Amino acid sequence: MTHSTGAIWHGRAPGRVNLIGEHVDYLGGVVLPAAVDRFTDVTGQPADKWSVRSDIGGGLDYVRCIGDELGASPQSINVTSDVPPGSGLSSSAALLVSVAAGLASNMDGKAAALACQRAEQKATGVHVGVMDQFASALGRRGHALLLDCATLDYRTVPFPHEIVIAVIDSGEHRSLAHTPYNQRRSEAEAGMPKRKRHVDSEIARVHAFVDALESGRFDRLGGLLNESHVSLRDDFEVSTPTVDGLVEKAWSQPGCLGARIMGAGFGGSIIALLERGKEDTFVSAMGRPVILCATADGAFATAA
Ligand code: GLA
Prior knowledge:
By secondary structure, this protein is of the alpha+beta class. It has 9 helices and 10 strands. The protein folds into 2 domains: 9-158, Ribosomal Protein S5, domain 2, CATH 3.30.230.10; 163-293, Alpha-Beta Plaits (2-Layer Sandwich). It has helices at 60-70, 91-103, 109-124, 131-138, 181-189, 193-214, 221-234, 241-251, 279-286; strands spanning 9-20, 30-46, 51-54, 75-81, 143-148, 154-158, 163-169, 256-262, 269-275, 290-293. Strands 1, 2, 3, 4, 5 and 6 form a 6-stranded mixed β-sheet that branches. Strands 8-9-7-10 form a 4-stranded antiparallel β-sheet. Helix 1 crosses helix 3 (109-124), helix 2 (91-103) crosses helix 3 and helix 2 (91-103) packs across helix 4. It is globular and about 55 Å long. Bound molecules: alpha-D-galactopyranose. Alpha-D-galactopyranose binds next to helix 4.
């Protein structure tokens, strides 16, 4: 399945957002991510040892680990990306999935996502769930993915054109290996009451969010995002004062339906949903870098 000739290969995979369903993927919960229109492109060819040249820096451990998962021989890899590390769009998942797409383009998308998850766990020592890699592999343009992380069953949920996805950088960047991510995971697995309260309430919010999308009750989406933030802040304890301040600022902007911390937390980025047409005033009011995204196809989506 992997390339054995000296030919140059190419792979491309998108970043992702998570609309709702945070810190539940590694517990077998349901999540609602979407692939977005920021991409990592890789080209590679067989070499004596693994090497990476990247316009966003780093990546060697990641490509070596996904190469091992795929049983590939060493490659010399060139990376160009508009998924900046620390932007909250899962640059690591985009890198891993782009390499998998390049080296093993016929692979089943679910199997590719699982291989990328294992590679990320090995490269970082962080026991991440499968959400980010799954979204980058199997997201669909115009849609979010409702993914059951216990079974990997998923279905697409149409995402309305009239709502804009904004990702805002808090400026607090952290490598997950230096955060209590693994600790939160263990506490939740052990059933610690506050952590469990977040997980149970968050899963209910994912279902309510999907119902709201599917019944056109977009007025309900923002409240669910805001409740998710409060739960991640108070019960799962993955927010920071800086991030809380940024979320509260987003909440007060005209045309902002709702906002919350996104991804692993401990700094990083927030997601806000905006009424289309209100983007410009939102961006200038926030005073931080804002990435406005549209949904996109995942690297393995068209084969799925
Ligand atoms: C990171 C991990 C995901 C998920 C989120 C929190 O992005 O890579 O698997 O656990 O944190 O929802």
